[in-house]
Amino acid sequence: MLAIGPAPPEKLAYALARYSRSPDSIQASMEWVRTHDSSKFLESFYFQYGHASIADLGHLAMCFEGISEIAAIEIEDEQLWDGQARSSRYQDFSKSGFVVPPEFSAHEAARYQAAGEKLLAAYKVVHAQAYEYLCGKLPRPEGMREDAYKRNLAARAYDVARYLLFLGVPTGVGQVTSIRTLESQVRRWKASEYAEIRELGAETAAACAAPPAVGDLADPVAPTLAKYVDADPFPPAARNRLRLWAAQNLSSQERKADTVELTRPAETLPDIAATLLYPATGWPFRDLYDTVSGWSKARQMEVIDVVLEGRGRRDELLREFRSSPLAFDIVMDIGAYRDLHRHRRCHQFRQEFTTKLGCETPDLIVESGMEGTYQQSIEEALATVNELPAPAAHYLIPFATRGRFLFKMDFAAAEYISRLRSGVKGHFSYRRIAWLMKQALEQAEPELARLIDATPPWVEDPLVR
Question: N or C: which end of the chain has fewer CB within 10 A?
Fold first, then answer.
């Protein structure tokens, strides 16, 4: 066994690819790469001949600082992804300011800024009062250090205060991905509906063409990649066509679904068609699947044809074409979604951010007498959201706002999420979701559900972190 020392990502990919194509040792391949131009190899084999797996052999560590939560969601919306984002339960966001969408006019930006400042002021007040209330409710146990006690209660107070944070609040994300994954990300970002994310794509490509900002390497990070990351027009064009088709062929009436609804698709074609329509509508997934299942095969294929129109030879199918046996349609607050969004062993789909599904009010807000302040802050913010132009208005949507999200997975992933996310150390919002996922499985698969060692949300230990 030989460990390979640090090397620029493209040169490492070149060395490992050459190693697989020659009888030379890895030492000889690494020495060869030091004296030859890796860009020529990648130009020929990766970009011209389409040997995409070569780009999986070089990995890059990148950090995105001062980006909005919306941008963070887009960065993390990648299954082949490893990384971390700033936590909302251990840091004070009251002095962080917020990202102003470039799309806004001066007048719109001023309205947005005023509303954002009010939310952050309320966030600070709610955290202070929640912390004081918890100190009175949960005295420090004997044997527990004072600093640990205060730190745990502060985190619990942030769990409540974070409902007043909003999607424009800045955060930081660090990721480690392959060259191939980063290429896909950048091409997707450059085609985003949000100007900030389009700019982020351009900045990332520029960073790949330069030496790393932190570290000892002097070579550019991924200069060949930086040449071939034009915006990918296929996915957004396909989704725009889907929205138009859905508006013309589906009613706007929407059933009020349960918090967690489990559907087990029996047929692949209606499953794919319903999944494609899910982000293009406000419908619960079960209603879409039942409706589409009642259509003829020709009409089901009409949805597929709408998506595939204009698909090029190298355009991959949308992720909606990936089927899984369990489809959990979840209505939850955005804060809980930000936590559950990190799970990679499932296929995730999001409907458009909206104010139509209302907002969550944590029990502690009511118990501590802060409901009036909290509700007024949320209602004022949502009123401004509805008056500002979309999609930039989404930046002001508070974490308390509910959205509809589809998580498709196999049983192993369902067991893992339900067991891990229901634990007493977790946030109360996603703990409830994890428990409801297990209950939904108990109705559908009682024998398998018994294998899930999930913790009921009423079992609590607030001083555990």
Answer: N
274-296 pLDDT, tens digit each: 999 999 999 999 999 999 999 99
Q: Nearest 5 degrees, angle CA 54-CA 59-CA 65?
A: 140
Q: Is 144 part of any domain?
A: no
| CA nearest to 96, candidates 157, 168, 200 | 168
> What is the count of structural domains for the chain?
2
Q: What is the pLDDT of residues 216-239, one digit of tens each?
A: 777 787 888 777 889 999 999 999
- Secondary structure (H, E, C), 233-250: CHHHHHHHHHHHHHHHHC
Summarised one tens digit per residue, pLDDT across range 235-269 is: 999 999 999 999 999 987 777 878 999 999 999 99
The arrangement of strands across the sheet holding 347-350 comes to 260-263, 326-333, 402-409, 347-350
CB 132 within 8 A of CB 59: no
Contacts of 318 (CB under 8 A, 6+ apart): 235, 238, 239, 276, 307
Which of 57, 80, 99 represents a domain boundary (last residue)? 57
- How many angstroms from the chain centroid is the CA of residue 457? 24
Cα distance between residue 415 and residue 418, in whole Å: 5
Task: For residue 157, count other CB atoms closer than 10 A to its CB.
Answer: 23
- Last residue of one domain, picked from the residues 57, 87, 104: 57
- Are residues 294 and 263 in contact, defined by beta-carbon separation less than 8 angstroms? no
Pairing verdict, β 82-85 and 170-178: antiparallel
Tell which phi-psi region holds residue 310, choosing left (phi > 0), alpha (psi between -120 and 50) or beta. left
**184-217 core/surface letters (b: 16 or more CB in 10 A; e: else):** bbbbbbbbbebebbbebbeebbebbeeebeeeee
Q: What is the b/e burial string over 378-412, where b = at least 16 CB atoms within 10 angstroms of the residue's CB?
A: beebbebbeebeeebbbbbbbbbbbbbbbbbbebe
In a domain? residue 410? no
* b/e map 413-427, b = 16+ CB within 10 Å: bbbebbbebbeeebb
**Residue 242: domain span:** 235-314
Helices (H), 84-178: 106-137, 146-161
* Residue 228 forms part of a structural domain: no
Task: Give, in degrees to the nearest 5, the angle at Cα 72 between 227 and 120.
Answer: 140
Asked whether residue 39 is domain-assigned, the answer is yes
In one letter, which amino acid is 167?
A: L
